[in-house]
Design a protein that fits this description.
The chain is of the alpha+beta class. It is built from 12 helices and 8 strands. α2 runs antiparallel to α3 and α3 crosses α6. The longest helix is centred in the N-terminal third of the chain and has 32 residues.
Amino acid sequence: MNQPKGTVALAAAAAVVMFVAATVTIGMAMLTAVVSGALPGGGCGGDGGIGGGSQSIGGQDWNAEQTDNAATIVSRVVERGLPKRAAVIAISTVIVESRLVNVGHGDRDSLGLFQQRPSQGWGTPAQVLNPGAATDTFLDRLVALPGWATMAPGTAAQAVQRSAFPDRYAPQEGPAAALVDRFWVGPDNPIPAPAVPGGPNVQLASSVFACPDQGGAGVPLAPSDIDPGQVPPGFTPPTDPAQRAAVTYALAQLGKPYVWGGRGPDGFDCSGLMLAAWSAAGVPIPAGTVSQKSAGSPASTATIAPGDLVFIPGSLGSPGNPRHVGMYVGHGMVVNAYDSSTGVILQPLSAWADEITHIRHIAGPPGQPAPDAALAQSAS
């Protein structure tokens, strides 16, 4: 049917106006989200984490892993009673060295957030790949510098790092200060007296975290033949060195408390236990459950191997946004920091089977397809 050209033109114009209006509305909604801090899909109700998930801070966009690591650094400074200046120096250093990402590569044997070198006395790979431990090592060396708190921007960072590019740190103090302001709670701390290396081993300061504890496992602690607090007699760890190191570390934490934001050694949240365990194997993985669900490569119950990360919604998550993670240790069992009242325990994989949303293979050989046997053994 032929319509008059004027009618067609008016209809086309109306469609264009509606499209532009919809586009502007979406754009304004996104702009509002950015101005308010949370990015689309981010925030405590989005990708979450102790740092508050993806958000815009100081005019820059940071993802969930980056804000998680920034919050961890601030918490270490708070726990040690150091001034905000120490957190600004540390975060400006990490922005330059790794862009606030826990990387497993760098110049020569440099690793982790601060690109610390095990061969140069910065600690073992497990220590430099654990954001909390790496921050403590950096702070030990920072506060040993006379007058560190009053040095010009970038000078203290360079004195610790001894970089071949000393001018890179100072320009990042503005973004670092904005991140510190986001997480710091309460008044500044006074400048302490010089301290010897080896800061106090204390838990993370949960008051600096942007999001509240996002819940525990949310699966029942059903009776089984597995003792939740003890490695079964005759347990054989995996033969692959990396898998063996990660599994052995995770199992050694049985009975320790659940601590929101904890990266060890005295307490862990669910993702912190996974990070610390794989750090012990010298393998970097991201901080936070949301980031860890993309670590490594996909696996399934048919190819699950010791050391694989197993994700379930948890008490406050969903199938598309799981909030709880454990490690498959072999023999039909998963170790996890269950919740704040239970701590780190072993559970049968079969107790999780109906809830599993993702499985991620981190390192070592994949498992062989035998899901029925594995689940049957875990249920026996």
